[in-house]
């Protein structure tokens, strides 16, 4: 859950920066247009249109550049593939059903009707609540809690 919140916070920050830049760029364009029109009163209307177009192009280039930069920054933070997924789990202490012995794994799969994401979620909740225990202890705790709550 904390990982999801951290990812959302990073994406929100990136979007805020992108939005602020877009607004600043549009304000700059409006300022350039106003300045260009004032200066163009002395010269031709054609020059005013050209100055306005240049300001608009510069603003669009700034927005596109920031968008590409934000995408590149996001691309660097996301890992793909099986090897990086395993590395991510090791780095963040995520417990999965694969890290539990086969007997306990079979019991968990039976109790939760083969809902692997649900099993992993319960294992990680137990690990968060009771740190510094063995992986099998967490599995036993989840099994105990499930059977107790079901009244079996």
What does the secondary structure layout of this molecule look like, with pairings?
Layout: H1 2-40, H2 45-77, H3 82-92, H4 102-111, H5 116-129, H6 135-150
Helix pairs in contact: 1-2, 4-6, 5-6
Task: Kindly describe this structure.
- The chain has 6 helices and no strands.
- It is an all-alpha fold.
- It has 2 domains: 2-77; 83-150, no CATH class.
- Helix 1 (2-40) runs antiparallel to helix 2 and helix 4 runs parallel beside helix 6 (135-150).
- The longest helix has 39 residues, at 2-40.
- The mean pLDDT is 76.
Count of runs of 4 or more consecutive helical residues: 6
How much strand? Answer: under 5%
Spatial shape: rod-shaped
Question: How many β-strand stretches?
Answer: 0
Task: Name its key features.
single chain, 152 residues, mainly alpha, 2 domains
What is shown here, in short?
This protein has 152 residues and is mainly alpha-helical. It contains six helices and no strands.
């Amino acid at each position: 859950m904390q990982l999801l919140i951290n990812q959302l916070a990073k994406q929100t920050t990136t979007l805020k920066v992108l939005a602020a830049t877009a607004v600043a760029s549009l304000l700059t364009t409006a300022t350039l247009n106003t300045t260009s029109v004032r200066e163009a009163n002395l010269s031709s209307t054609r020059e005013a249109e050209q100055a306005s177009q240049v300001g608009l192009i510069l603003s669009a280039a700034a927005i596109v550049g920031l968008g590409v930069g934000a995408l590149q920054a996001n691309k660097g933070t996301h890992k793909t593939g099986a090897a990086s997924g395993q590395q991510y789990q090791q780095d963040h202490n995520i417990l999965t059903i694969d890290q539990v012995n086969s007997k306990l794994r079979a019991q968990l799969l039976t109790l939760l009707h083969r809902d692997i994401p649900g099993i992993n979620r319960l294992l990680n909740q137990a690990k968060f609540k009771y740190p510094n225990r063995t992986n099998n202890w967490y599995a036993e705790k989840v099994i105990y809690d499930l059977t107790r709550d079901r009244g079996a």
